[in-house]
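Q: Convert this sequence to structure tokens.
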Amino acid sequence: MKPAFVLSAMLALAPISALAAEPNPAMQAFLHGTVLAWAHDPVIVEAVKAQNAQTAGYDAAHIDALDKTWRAEVGTAATPTIDPVLTNAAADFLRGRVAANGAMITEVFIMDAQGLNVAASSVTSDYWQGDEDKFQQTFPMGPGAEHYSEIEFDESSQSYQAQVSISLTDPASGEVIGAMTVGIIADALM
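A:
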């Protein structure tokens, strides 16, 4: 990890578009040239659809309780809520994408129609993403929605990154089924 003063100097010299919540050319190129090629892989689509069937009836109180349990488990030895999200075929697939693009990606996670994590390459700081722009600016916006975050320090990945999020669709029906977020290392965007 770069010392804060080095990163501050880098960001001060970066083009304004790299800091704004709009896509810079590097973010767009990476999304369209790399991420979209595997974003709708059957392992991801099937995992999201299966979880949607399970969580469709969850109310806000249940989601809040799950999120509180997840956050309490982060950094502990016993993680029964977190483990299923990190130990499934889709999570293995995501870790493979991180490994293949290690100089670019800090994390990848997919969310269901409720904004709950389905699979993740590594532990996220919370379970429910439904209250965040990464979900609110993609899933409800329909097919092809994209959201670009500002560069910031991410607690879960312990790095400076920007996040690119997209809506996920079922290729068979065209229906939006969830969302995906990819953390891109800030240095790669400069």
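Strands lie at 105-111, 117-120, 146-148, 152-154, 159-169, 176-185.
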